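User: Please fill in residues for this 471-position structure.
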């Protein structure tokens, strides 16, 4: 009995995925709950675990695209029975195939069938017989013709042998096993590596001997061993000058998403600059007490999220989206925060930002950042945002024009904090300044509304007390 390893559904809009890595090897014993493989989709990465215990058979290698619901592997259960457990894996596999009798079909050398007993027609299926009574290639034919199991199908192979063959690059179909029913043992693989040509010649002699005995034509085993290597997803081209690597599903999705955003929206960006002196002074003065009370640092992002929520309440048109010929106005404040990870850009959504305090928002940001780096974000973590904040300043960006995240209507770009000379009350002073950029969909947001919103965010950050009193 075996259990299929299937690609599970990870969301209504996800139809396929990409096998990034198998965490278990072909033929390896796995337990229920063990991590089997990592699947990348166009939205998230997900880990698939074993639903039962047994021996793993890999049907689709890593680096391949698969559809949702596809069978990518199989877990074979150990046979149940009253027999004592074998001492090792090879004996276990030999015991599993000890009573396995295969179906027989005559191999035709020419259009005229060859029969050892013309008056008796061979049956397609035969009743199981005791292992010690199973005829070998050196025994005379009895009532029924049975070929050597090794030449009728792929010889039984234990998981340990498969792993050894994979490591050594040996084609198991070229090896004549010496175990029960032709099972290939470790010593057979080692002997093949030490003198592969002699074993191939031996197989050829066995074939000729069987042809004389039964008068049948058997497959030609006189072929050169080939090393089976897993194809690399990357290709070196132009004499090593370039490397061609297929895009991952999440990278392809990001590309399609950004191109569609520019194609389907009337994008426009407005800019402003923000004096970060008050916020930096606030963080410096309260950081120790904040950490002691909440166990998390007070960052700039929670302050900007609160400022954005205040701006969305004042300019409702920003908190809206187009749905066909309709305008949908949102009355909730779920703000997405763009996070860069090794797998690409993701935008987890902080829920109900208007109801959460600064500490709760900071904890959510830290949690999502960890999940993003580990590739464990779920679809629910990425859906439903009404506005997005992207902080290119952590990479040193001075100024940019961010692209909105459809179907949202606007995105705020934060940038690097640079000390610059500014004029205040007729005097030139040095202040830590940040450029702010608001990209918006001009189809539903006018310039006046965009500038008003960005100005409100600037005022709240420059004077955080506004967030307390709402002035």
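Assistant: Residues filled in for all 471 positions:
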């Amino acid at each position: 009995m075996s259990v299929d390893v299937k690609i599970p559904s990870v969301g209504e809009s996800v139809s396929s995925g990409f096998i990034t890595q198998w965490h278990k090897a072909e033929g390896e014993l796995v337990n229920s709950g063990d991590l089997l493989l990592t699947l990348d989709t166009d939205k998230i990465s997900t880990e698939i675990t074993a639903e039962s215990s047994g021996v793993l058979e890999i049907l689709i290698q890593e680096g391949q695209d698969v559809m949702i619901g596809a069978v990518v592997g199989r877990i074979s259960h150990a046979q149940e029975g009253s027999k004592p457990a074998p001492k090792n894996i090879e004996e276990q596999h030999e015991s599993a195939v000890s009573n396995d009798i295969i179906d027989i079909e005559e191999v035709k050398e020419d259009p005229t069938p060859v029969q050892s007993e013309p008056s008796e027609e061979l049956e397609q299926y035969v009743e199981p017989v005791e292992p010690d009574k199973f005829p070998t290639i050196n025994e005379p034919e009895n009532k029924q013709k049975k070929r050597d199991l090794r030449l009728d199908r792929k010889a039984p192979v234990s998981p340990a042998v498969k792993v050894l063959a994979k490591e050594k690059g040996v084609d198991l179909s070229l090896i004549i096993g010496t175990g029960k029913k032709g099972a290939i043992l470790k010593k057979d693989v080692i002997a093949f590596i030490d003198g592969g040509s002699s074993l191939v010649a031996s197989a050829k002699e066995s074939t000729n001997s069987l042809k004389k005995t039964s008068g049948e034509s058997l497959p030609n085993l006189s072929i050169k061993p080939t090393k089976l290597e897993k194809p690399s997803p990357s290709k070196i081209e132009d004499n090593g000058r370039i490397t061609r690597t297929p895009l991952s599903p999440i990278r392809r999705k990001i590309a399609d998403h950004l191109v569609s955003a520019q194609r389907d929206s009337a994008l426009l960006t407005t800019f402003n600059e923000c004096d970060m002196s008050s916020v930096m002074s606030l963080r410096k003065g309260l950081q120790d007490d904040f950490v002691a009370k909440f166990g998390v640092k007070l960052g700039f992002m929670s302050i900007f999220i609160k400022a954005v929520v205040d701006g969305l309440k004042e300019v409702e048109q920003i908190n809206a989206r187009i749905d066909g010929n309709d305008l949908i106005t949102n009355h909730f404040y779920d703000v997405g925060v763009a996070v860069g990870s090794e797998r690409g850009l993701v935008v987890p959504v902080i829920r109900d930002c208007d109801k959460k305090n600064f500490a709760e928002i900071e904890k959510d940001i830290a949690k999502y950042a960890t999940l993003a780096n580990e590739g464990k974000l779920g679809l629910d973590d990425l859906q439903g945002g009404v506005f997005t904040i992207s902080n290119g300043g952590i990479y040193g960006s001075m100024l940019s024009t961010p692209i909105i995240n459809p179907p949202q209507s606007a995105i705020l770009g934060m940038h690097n904090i640079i000390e610059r000379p500014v004029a205040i009350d007729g005097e030139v002073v040095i202040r830590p300044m940040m450029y702010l950029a608001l990209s918006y969909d001009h189809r539903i947001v006018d310039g006046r509304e965009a500038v008003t919103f960005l100005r409100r965010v600037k005022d709240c950050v420059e004077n955080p007390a506004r967030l307390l009193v709402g002035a």
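For context: The first strand starts at residue 2 and ends at 6.
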